[in-house]
Specification:
Largest sheet: 5 strands, antiparallel
CATH topology of the largest domain: Transferase(Phosphotransferase), domain 1
Distance between the termini: 135 Å
Number of domains: 4
Structural class: alpha+beta
CATH class of the largest domain: Mainly Alpha
Number of helices: 29
Mean pLDDT: 84
CATH architecture of the largest domain: Orthogonal Bundle
CATH superfamily of the largest domain: Transferase(Phosphotransferase) domain 1
Strand content: 5-15%
């Protein structure tokens, strides 16, 4: 399988056979096909070969990793040493490494035989798989344990009495792994998980060992790697936040593997991780790992070359080749150079280096700000370490976060996070409970989202707000090479937007290009490409009709793949009474943009689905006849399957304009008629009042006349 990000089908029409257009299949009004749809056809060329059948009822728990499940494989060619790993759809996949390894072969590695989709309809375990050669023999960890218990025999190290001989370690372990790493370096990939549980041996006897190094592509880099195998800067990160790493990191791990083969255990086994890291920062990894333990002169050279904390001085391929040929180097014991003339006392510990002090600050996060604001750190950096620039940077950060007496937790967090970067640019970005390299932040976010960890999500948002990645990149030469650091600056703007295609969901996909779409509709499927997503929605329109065609995940997934940076509906000026109606147009616009980019001519099912969900927009048209006409036009265009034309009908606003003008004219006519009615009503009322006044006047006159008559008669009679 090829990586299908931004991949287009060979032709605009999905075809079967030798250029013959597929016969139309029975479908309902929403476009769902009776026997598979375009999504299945689109990914057909990306499927696992039909030569392999993954036996999901035959798991291999021993080959599981923290990121994938392993199963037996049936092969038509009768090869017996194959197995499949089915990758989860909730973590980013190492697609680039998988593609590189498909062209790679080494008899001492679990080589990839195939990789691709296994079932577009989803399934219990996911639907992207890698077929690999099964490692023969037993894990090195199991063999060493048996050797320690006396259950296994081996060629002992006669010079030192240690577990395995120098010759066995050199020829059966170091040499084959060195050749694998040479090929990896030439392909610009790295392993990331060389350890005693990933090395398999058929025997502990020379010429029969047949060492095999197991794959590491089934999980994010270094996720399950024991911290002792990691260089200090990677060991300081949380497992998901280690980032991509390098071949130099693999060579450090090789040095720890040699230690394990000699002594039968990991250095510092049983000790607390942070304590080991603190000691490594003070004295150097070699001194903490070896201490007073002794190996042969030859193995001491190898360990001193590999367990060097400086990547530039650490041994690589050529030095090991010379060592294998018997060249002596007489290396001095690697150690940590003291930077300061006088120590910096904090938390009851004396610190002679900035990196060690930064680590102690991180371990005492809640109290660190008070010490930093006191001014002692600036004096130490200036006078004892002779780094006036660093002292000025610390002073600047203090001033910008409240000064000497800030009581704000948010300002304290910013102060500590930035001062840690100033003191130790190689270390991960650290902010309370998250410690991650710049290129490891994406996997941390994906895990926080999957587990709905609101605290970590909030911390991640804060790290973006503070622009810590760029702050680190200006000081760390390794991070400066990370091309996507500019992306993190852009995400600082995206995360505050509420429009569809932005927010935390957008950050999720921009930072994890190998992450399938996490929409509730798609969570059991492995949707990793725009074409695949559009075909899937189109084919399953009837089944999913109770959902909105686009939720925040689908919108952000599409916006990320198409690098949308602004709201696509910004130029659509419609008078809609509710924001939710504009959101629906936003969704349609994203889908239309995606259809155009993917060059898919017809998506009738998806168009009908989204049209059916726009009933509330149709109902905003007051005129019954016009409303019916608008709905009819939408349905007609939907049958054509062109989402862009749907957008044009709505964006043009002709129906809305006519309805608005008709309504305005009706209101005007209503007002004119209403005025006439009111005038007539007032005239009638006045006439009625006049008539009443006339009648009442006559009645009063009559009464007055009677009174006058009575008075006249009375006077006459007297």
């Amino acid at each position: 399988m090829e990586v299908i990000e931004d991949t287009k089908p060979q032709n605009n029409d999905i075809r079967d056979g030798e250029g013959e257009q597929a016969a139309p299949k029975k479908s309902d009004s929403m476009g769902e096909t009776a026997k598979g749809g375009r999504a299945e056809k689109f990914i057909e060329k990306f499927n696992i070969s039909k030569d392999f059948k993954i036996l999901t009822d035959s798991p291999i728990p021993d080959l599981n990793t923290s990121g994938a499940s392993a199963f037996q494989v049936s092969d038509v060619h009768q090869r017996q040493n194959l197995y499949a790993i089915i990758l989860p759809n909730t973590l980013p996949i190492r697609f680039e490494t998988i593609q590189a390894l498909k062209k790679f072969y080494n008899s001492n590695y679990t080589n990839i035989q195939d990789a691709g989709f296994t079932d577009v309809a989803g399934g219990k375990y996911g639907n992207y798989s890698v077929i690999l050669e099964k490692p023969l023999g037993r894990k090195l960890s199991d063999l060493i344990e048996s050797l320690k218990n006396g259950d296994e025999k081996a060629q002992p190290n006669t010079k030192t009495g240690l577990l395995l001989s120098d010759e066995f370690i050199a020829n059966e372990i170091v040499n084959p792994i060195n050749e694998i790493l040479k090929s990896f370096a030439d392909t610009e990939i790295f392993h990331g998980c060389i350890n005693h549980r990933n090395v398999y041996l058929e025997s502990l006897q020379s010429s029969q060992a047949n060492m095999v190094l197991k794959e590491s592509i089934s999980e994010p880099p270094g996720l399950s790697q024991p911290h002792q195998y990691e260089p200090i800067h990677r060991a300081q990160a949380i497992p998901l936040g280690k980032g991509q790493g390098s071949i130099e990191d693999d060579y450090f791990a090789l040095g720890v593997l040699v230690y394990y083969c000699l002594f039968g255990d990991l250095p510092g086994q049983g000790s607390e991780q942070m304590e080991i890291i603190s000691n490594r920062l003070k004295k150097g990894s070699y001194n903490i790992y070896l201490g007073y333990d002794e190996a042969s002169t030859r193995m001491t050279d190898l360990l001193r070359g590999l367990l060097n904390d400086s990547p530039e001085e650490r041994w690589g391929y050529s030095q090991i080749v010379q060592w294998l040929k018997g060249k002596r180097s007489n290396l001095i014991r690697p150690t940590i150079r003291k930077e300061a003339v006088r120590s910096y006392e904090y938390a009851g510990v004396s610190h002679f280096s900035r990196r060690a002090l930064a680590n102690t600050y991180y371990r005492h996060w809640e109290e660190a700000s008070e010490d930093i604001r006191s001014g002692k750190l600036q004096k130490w950096l200036d006078l004892s370490v002779s780094l006036a620039n660093a002292a000025e940077e610390v002073a600047s950060v203090i001033a910008s976060t409240g000064g000497a007496h800030s009581k704000s937790r948010r300002e304290d967090d910013e102060l500590i996070a930035k001062v840690l970067v100033i003191l130790d640019p190689m270390a991960p970005i650290r902010h309370r409970n998250i410690a991650a390299q710049v290129d490891g932040l994406g996997a941390v976010l994906a895990n926080a989202w999957e587990n709905k960890n609101q605290y970590e999500l909030q911390t991640f948002s804060e790290m973006l707000r503070l622009n810590l990645a760029d702050f680190k990149a200006t000081k760390d030469v390794y991070t400066e090479k990370f091309s996507d650091r500019w992306l993190l600056q852009k995400l600082n703007n995206f995360i505050t937007k509420t429009e569809y295609g932005f927010g935390v969901e957008r950050c999720l996909y921009d930072m994890n290009h190998g992450l399938p779409c996490q929409s509730e509709m798609l969570i059991k499927h492995f949707i990793i490409d725009i074409n695949q997503l559009l075909y899937f929605l189109n084919d399953n329109a009837s089944r999913l009709s109770s959902y909105e065609p686009v939720d925040r995940h689908i919108a952000s997934f599409l916006a990320s793949k198409m690098d949308v940076t602004t709201d696509l509906t910004a130029n659509i000026q419609l008078r809609l009474p509710e924001r939710s109606m504009m959101d629906q147009i936003s969704k349609l616009t994203l889908l239309a943009f995606a259809q155009r980019k993917a060059e898919i001519p017809k998506l009738a099912g998806l168009a009908s689905w989204i049209t059916a969900r726009m009933e509330n927009i149709v109902n905003t048209i007051s005129n019954k006849k016009l409303r019916k006409e608008f709905k009819s036009d939408l349905e007609r265009v939907a049958r054509m399957g062109d989402l862009t034309k749907l957008v044009e009908i709505i964006a043009k606003g002709e129906h809305f304009r006519r309805d608005y003008e008709g309504l305005r004219e009706a209101k005007h006519n209503y007002n004119v008629i209403n005025q006439k009615i009111n005038y007539l009503r007032a005239s009638k009322l006045r006439a009625k009042k006049n008539s009443t006044y006339h009648y009442n006047g006559l009645y009063i006159a009559k009464i007055i006349s009677i009174f006058v008559l009575l008075i006249t008669l009375t006077v006459t009679s007297i």
